[in-house]
Amino acid sequence: MTGIRLHAPRPGWSVDADVVVVGSGVAGLTVALRCAAAGAKVTVVTKALLDDGSTRWAQGGIAAALGEGDTPEQHLDDTLVAGAGLCDEEAVRALVTEGPDAVRRLIATGARFDTDADTGAVLLTREGGHHRRRIAHAGGDATGAEISRALVEAVRAAGIETIEHALVLDLLKDADGRAAGVTLHVMGEGERDGVGAVRARAVVLATGGMGQVFSATTNPAVSTGDGVALALRAGAEVSDLEFVQFHPTVLWLGPDAEGQQPLVSEAVRGEGAHLVDANGHRFMVGAHELAELAPRDIVAKGIMRRMQELGAPHMYLDARHFGARMWEQRFPTILAACRAHGIDPVTEPIPVAPAAHYASGGVRTDLAGRSSVPGLYACGEVACTGVHGANRLASNSLLEGLVFAERIAADVTEVLREAGAPPRPAATGTDTGAGTVLAGPKARLEIQRIMSEGAGVLRSRESLDRAAAELARIDDDAAAALEAPGTESWEATNLLLVARVLVAAALRREETRGCHWREDAPDRDDAWRRHLLVTLRPDRTLAVSTTETAAFPPAAAPTPHPPTNGAHPRSTT
Ligand code: SIN
């Protein structure tokens, strides 16, 4: 087996499957359901419980051209504008044209969206960057929880094997370098304790994001970039990691707030809430034609600018005019979260500030979800399909998870039909002696501080250089300390790797575009209308190259095999 791996014990147990899906959000569970329906033996591996991933925290909803008068073409236009010149148009076209039917299939699977009491039509709201009402929601502001409930129920009903509380470690490969399964560590008691392996012909990463690389994020504690780090160690390309979306309106809980912070959905602005400063001034009016509903990067920048002008730690979201009834019916989750922190949105404006929310980049895939490593797929936030460009359009992520999950399932099914005997991993992939050095558990907080200070909403060469140097020091310390394997050190090591890549890419991109804001290069530069691709060399240094254009390689879906997307246009810089 080639590639770099985490320092970990040798697997003590193994199971076989046709497909192993790592992650249990909308992307992972949809892949699992579709592959199982096609007759594949599927194993789902998830880090906490089946319904504990990022999907269940999604509030606003799922965007699709479902409304009267709306068209995929209009959805495409809004997505391209938000993506600030870096979307892969073919990927976006797949998203918006296949999206409406994918949502209908989700409804057929059991997800109950909010509907009009008289007509039964799905109710649609607005969010930033959308020129019309296009966002389907459930339980008012509990869309992700409802989608998660429906998919978990369907997975259980289908009898799909699941392994919970399992941190994925590394990719197994066969003698030809094709993915042959994963190693993982299961926390708990029982037959499958400790490090084991799932051997499979296809590996689908659906591990979600990496928000925990920053101090304050809307992401749950499990979002430590495990999928991107695994893919890098396995030799796969990652792209666009510099484009971290900061959600403009996250409940501000004080200057030292750490970890997952409560989101105040953009749908609150979609229903008419105003962003104001401490003087009640609506600072987004006049700043953009869509005011508070401008694309997310523009609103986040507007908030940051006003905070800087006034020397204020946060701004306010004012939706007192909704009244108690609307708050209770339309936004019960947000109302409860605010009240739990002593703020009553019915009678007072909500203090808000931007926090890390979504990784627009990730493991580079083609339109069938195939990474540059044969047999390794990526889906959902962990992937970079080219759909989001430099800034994801609000509520496109659940849709991306759905649409590309179906594309992956179609491709995997075809691969399985053609395949002979299951591949045997060339090696177990882990042993006690040869893995990469591990960062210690304490590194997590340090990495978060470094990234928040140096690579947050506002960046500059100076702040990024500082961050790069501090991360390098943590890496050196890890080499000297010889940390023991364990969940906390594996997670910290993953965070360190994705942080290094993010900073390297942010340093290289000397312009301001989408959610990448360089104070020292404040303009968009068309010479940078291309993607940065990063791989990990065997000596763990980073190789950074660029594509020629904003387009990723031609669509490969639905076949042929094996994947060819390592051959896309690029130039090394
Ligand atoms: C929100 O509800 O504001 C978040 C939606 C999203 O991130 O797409």
TrEMBL record:
The active site is at R296 (proton acceptor). GO terms for cellular component: cytoplasm. Belongs to the FAD-dependent oxidoreductase 2 family. NadB subfamily. Residues 549-573 are annotated as: Disordered. It is an enzyme of class 1 (oxidoreductase). Pathway: Cofactor biosynthesis; NAD(+) biosynthesis; iminoaspartate from L-aspartate (oxidase route): step 1/1. It comes from the Bacteria. It holds the Pfam family FAD_binding_2. It catalyses: L-aspartate + O2 = iminosuccinate + H2O2. This is L-aspartate oxidase. Keywords: FAD, Flavoprotein, Oxidoreductase, Pyridine nucleotide biosynthesis. GO terms for molecular function: L-aspartate oxidase activity; steroid dehydrogenase activity, acting on the CH-CH group of donors. Its EC number is 1.4.3.16. The lineage of its organism: Bacteria, Bacillati, Actinomycetota, Actinomycetes, Kitasatosporales. Its main location: cytoplasm. GO terms for biological process: 'de novo' NAD+ biosynthetic process from L-aspartate. It comes from Streptomyces klenkii. Its cofactor is FAD. Residues 444-543 form the Fumarate reductase/succinate dehydrogenase flavoprotein-like C-terminal domain. Residues 18-398 form the FAD-dependent oxidoreductase 2 FAD-binding domain.
